[in-house]
């Protein structure tokens, strides 16, 4: 359904036959792999094969997550809790990019491999962990947020189970070393990024070296939580997850108070919970325009959201296992959640597919009219057309799931390549 619909940057890449935005975004390894696999610097469309590869990477990511959190493979409900890692609405925006999706999912896979090695707490893997975490930063930077999320969750689990803060920090020192050294190594590469804010004449990254920049970071975090709430507060599945998230927070704080009565431990757990919840946003909270109104990239940078969703589901089920009645209710919720994620992705794919066909029909009809107008009025060199193509099915689906407005806002408007065709008489003739 998705493989037949070029999306967003894909249009530019088709027209220019160039990997638009790769090198300016610092995705050097992605560009190298593309050139090596395709044998040319010319961009190559391999869809739907790219989608098959992406799904394979996502499936392998889920398997590694089961190993990291030592999930009992004989407990089907524990396994089902990790379905959102592979299938969730936040992944939709990533999967829509036919040229990018193999590399964004590969970047996430490499990040999860780094987290797996870190979870083994072996000194001999420290160099490999750093290399594995550095690679995604030069493929798709948002992927490294998964490492931060997993680290924060395991840290919370240790402290809330009664372990001393100092002992936990010592045992997980490999995680700290990996994060610190990796980001220090990445600084020279980040300085080479060529994206600037022309309005402010500043680099895209925010360095918290002034009150103004600190407020900008706080604004990003606020926008992150607000956007998630606005996207999901109007439907039942979102409300259930909000409740489970609150229960998760209260349970971990309560366990810390009971098992580890140290005030430092309580403050540390609260801080770790905050990092866990905001971890999906990761390094992107330090990007100046990431929360600009209408910025489509916001949803893409939190595509690792399936990991905290799965962990919160797992925590809720483990909490309910102690009471049989609650366990059955939670089993039903997990089943509904997995089923809903699949239905959402399928329905969204259908909506996008049918809407693309509607756009093609409208485009052809308008192109004919424009061609006739330009033929009868030689003095007209250009006609500018703006507007949106809507359908009741699309509008109703977006009302139920506002996240779609963030994922594909340009889909509701006349795409850029159509405007090019409508304002260029020769180009329109070729199409007709």
Sum up the structure in keywords.
432 residues; globular
Give the helices and strands, then pairings.
Elements: H1 9-16, H2 28-38, H3 49-68, H4 76-80, H5 83-86, H6 89-95, H7 101-119, H8 126-137, H9 145-160, H10 165-171, H11 173-190, E1 196-197, E2 202-203, H12 211-232, H13 236-259, H14 263-278, H15 297-300, H16 306-320, H17 324-376, H18 392-400, H19 403-407, H20 416-423, H21 425-431
Antiparallel strand pairs: 1-2
Helix pairs in contact: 3-7, 7-8, 7-9, 8-11, 9-13, 9-14, 13-14, 13-16, 16-17, 17-21, 20-21
State the gist of this model.
The chain is mainly α and 432 residues long. Helix content is 67%, strand content 1%.
Tell the overall outline.
globular
Distance between the termini: 26 Å
How many E-type strands? 2
What is the radius of gyration computed over CA atoms, rounded to a whole number of angstroms?
Answer: 24 Å
What's the story with the biggest beta sheet? 2 strands, antiparallel
Q: How confident is the prediction overall: mean pLDDT?
A: 76
Report the β-strand fraction as a percent range.
under 5%
What fraction, in percent, of the residue positions are helical?
A: 55-70%
Total helical segments: 21
Sketch the topology as an H/E string, one letter per element: HHHHHHHHHHHEEHHHHHHHHHH
What structural category arises from helix and sheet content? mainly alpha
Q: What are the segments in which pLDDT stays under 50 over at least 5 consecutive residues?
A: 195-201, 412-425, 427-432
Major sheet strand order: 1-2
């Amino acid at each position: 359904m998705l493989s037949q619909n070029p999306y967003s940057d894909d249009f530019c890449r088709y027209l220019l036959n160039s990997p638009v935005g790769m090198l300016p975004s610092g995705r050097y390894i992605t560009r190298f792999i593309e050139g090596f696999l395709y044998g040319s610097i010319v961009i190559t469309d391999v869809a739907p094969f790219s989608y098959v590869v992406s799904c394979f990477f996502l499936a392998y990511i889920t398997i590694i997550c089961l190993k990291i959190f030592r999930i009992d493979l004989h407990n089907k409900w524990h396994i089902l809790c990790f379905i959102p890692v592979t299938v969730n609405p936040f992944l939709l925006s990533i999967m829509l990019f036919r040229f990018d999706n193999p590399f964004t999912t590969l970047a996430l896979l490499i990040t999860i491999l780094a987290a797996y090695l870190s979870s083994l707490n072996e000194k001999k893997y420290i160099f490999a962990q750093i290399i594995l975490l550095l690679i995604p930063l030069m493929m798709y930077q948002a992927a490294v947020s998964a490492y931060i999320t997993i680290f924060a969750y395991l840290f919370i689990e240790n402290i809330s189970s009664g372990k001393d803060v100092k002992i936990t920090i010592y045992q997980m020192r490999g995680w700290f070393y990996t994060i610190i050294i990796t980001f220090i190594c990445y600084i020279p590469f980040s300085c080479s990024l060529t994206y600037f804010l022309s309005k402010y004449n500043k680099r895209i990254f925010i360095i918290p070296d002034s009150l103004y920049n600190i407020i900008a970071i706080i604004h990003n975090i606020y926008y992150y939580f607000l956007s998630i709430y606005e996207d999901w507060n109007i439907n039942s599945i979102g409300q259930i997850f909000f409740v489970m998230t609150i229960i998760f927070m209260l349970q971990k704080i309560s366990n810390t108070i009971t098992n580890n009565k140290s005030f430092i431990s309580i403050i540390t757990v609260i801080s770790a919970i905050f990092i866990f919840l905001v971890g999906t946003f990761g390094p992107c909270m330090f990007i100046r325009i990431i929360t600009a109104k209408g910025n489509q990239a916001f949803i893409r940078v939190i595509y690792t959201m399936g990991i905290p969703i799965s962990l919160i589901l797992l925590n809720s089920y483990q909490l309910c296992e102690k009471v049989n009645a609650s366990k059955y209710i939670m089993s039903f919720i997990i089943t509904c959640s997995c089923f809903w994620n699949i239905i959402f992705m399928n329905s969204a794919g259908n909506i996008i597919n049918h809407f693309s066909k509607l756009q093609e029909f409208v485009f052809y009809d308008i192109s004919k009219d424009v061609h006739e107008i330009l033929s009868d009025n030689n003095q007209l060199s250009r006609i500018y057309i703006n507007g949106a193509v809507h359908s009741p099915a699309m509008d109703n689906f977006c009302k139920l799931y506002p996240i779609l407005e963030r994922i594909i806002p340009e889909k509701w408007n006349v795409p850029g390549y159509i405007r090019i065709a409508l304002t260029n008489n020769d180009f329109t003739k070729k199409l007709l």
